[in-house]
Amino acid sequence: MGTQKQSGADAGIPIDLTAFIGRREEVAAVRGLLAGSRLVTLTGVGGVGKTRLAYHIGVTMARAFPDGVRVVELAGLRDPGLLVDTVAASLGLRNQRAHLTLDLVVEHLRTKRMLLVVDNCEHLAVECAKVIDALLRALPDLRVLTTSRHVLGITGEGTFVVSPLPVPLAKRDWSAEELRRYSAVVLFEQRAASVLPGFEVTQDNAMAVGRLVHWLDGLPLALELAAARMRTLTLQDILVRMEQRFTLLTGGSRAALPRQQTLRELMDWSHELCSEGERTLWARASVFLGGFDLEAAEAVCTSADLPEHAVLDVVHGLVAKSVLIRQENNGRARYRMLETVREYGQEHLAESGALARFRRRHRDHHLEIAARARDGWFGPDQVAWMARLRSEHANLRAALDFCLDTPGEAATGMELATRPRHYWIAHGGIGEGRRWLSRLLAAGTQDSAARAEALGTYAYLGLMQGAVAEAAPLVIEFQQAATRLQDASALAWAQHHLALTAGFRGEAARAAEFFEDAMTQHRAVGDVAGAAECMFKLAIAVCMGDTDRALSLCQECQTITSEHGESWIRVDALFAECLVRWQIGERDTAEALARQSPASASALRPMGYRPVRGGRGLVRGGRRRCRTRCLSARHTPVPLACHRRHPVRRPLHGRIASAVRQGDACVVAGGAVRSGPASRCGFHPR
């Protein structure tokens, strides 16, 4: 185990800081299977090293796949309905359409030669089998490597049983040199040395080391847990305690103890060696999915017997014992458990009768985080909050699951799903946000402020995906609910949603009127963020007929957002001004403005923005050849191009698309313009 970090986005594979040991024959065998079978599943007991082996194979085979190796991690996913979304997110596919379907994933991968590593399939085996089978049937250049405790049962599936590491035979006279020929011994030696510097297998301890790895059956997780004990116990102490435990369990017959039970017994023993506080935190922290930070542990896991001031030391103890793995994410230390370890802790929490209580505390903590993110959205911490929510994505899902699983919690779930409204858009998870809201609205039908806001957000996300027919009646229902509640802020957003609806229907003048009303109402209630969001959209809505007003709105929006340190809407307003300048013939000014954008967009990488290489900005003219020198904003609250599907930009789409075809200019975001002769150019939504 040990400290881990994520590799760069291009690698797509989590990289462990500890060395990969042994498994040469297994790596070669699996690579051979992948050469002959487009799907290979690694099976084996928990703790045997399936995930680590799969990741290592992905690294070693990266050069064989021009379009890379991507990992789909499923340990933190519980809702099978989000499997396609999770696959798409792992591929970097952010979709704004009404329904994120498997067909869209297939289309994204159509021309790619890629290895997909799907990790921890066992709890979603049926759904994984359907999705993977469909992908393989449609994509002849795709290879898939999965890990699961069970085979998936797909036609043509190659399977490889991952066995424990080789161990020495049960004899008493091993030499240190002989023992080092066994991967299990090398693994134990290296991990023990990481907690007890200077430790090595010598002639003096060879017999004890040989007996220990033999008793542990070469299970990597068991070996690492045992090595962690070297910080406080001698090798002989560990060996005596383990042999006594297993002898009592099996009546002296080592063969009577299955490997999975070996791991279970070692975890039981590791649990007993923990302090009372460590056992308590182990169980309570099992409610987290995808990891947690110290603040979360202090908020969720504390009680009279585990006070807040003691949590840091307890976390340190669990890291030292390899129960927790320390990682770093966006400059913050985070901790996670291997799934086998987490499941063990949750069993103890359930047995204590406290599982529901700590799942509720977990939900409440993430409700607070979402509220803080919403409050900090329009300001200098905007990007940091979006990055924070991305790191908590699995926990947000777990909290929403709790709200749906627990009677009477739907209203709180609606609050949780609506507070990070912009997160669903910036994260590229509009479809997922809509799915949660749809289920919550069905579960909680009582009229309330929370339900009204959920209706509004559900309608807004639907409009952002172009599901106008479905969303339009919801906008009216939201407006009626806001009127009943006399909620001025909600009424302002209802006007905003009506504007989007009109825009999608090609009613530009009505859209402008609604945006104007919404902006005025937002200002009346002191919602600067809402007013700014309406401002740049209004600018684009009116720019075909009133360019002076459009430019004034863009510049006012840029001033307001700059004063507040906001980034997202400011980039939108800057792009809107570029479009207006281009439209009125001020190409040099438009390009000069565009050159300012890459620096601004670079700060938005955690929210999905990606400035193109070269930093040339958003607009690039050229009579003979169209050059892709644009800012690619793959998912924004309003796609930044005059995209034919977008309500506000639709009036400009035809004119700009015509100019692009003529080679006059290249303006795009939210999609890409194909480089090459003008006759070959066109808009290609991502």
From TrEMBL:
Which Pfam families does the entry link to?
AAA_22, HTH_77
Q: Give start and end of each ORC1/DEAH AAA+ ATPase domain.
A: 37-143
Where the record annotates domain Winged helix-turn-helix, the positions are 276-350
Q: Cite the InterPro entries for this sequence.
A: AAA_22, HTH_77, P-loop_NTPase, TPR-like_helical_dom_sf
Q: Which PANTHER family match?
A: HTH-TYPE TRANSCRIPTIONAL REGULATOR RV0890C-RELATED, REGULATOR-RELATED
Name assigned to this protein: AAA family ATPase
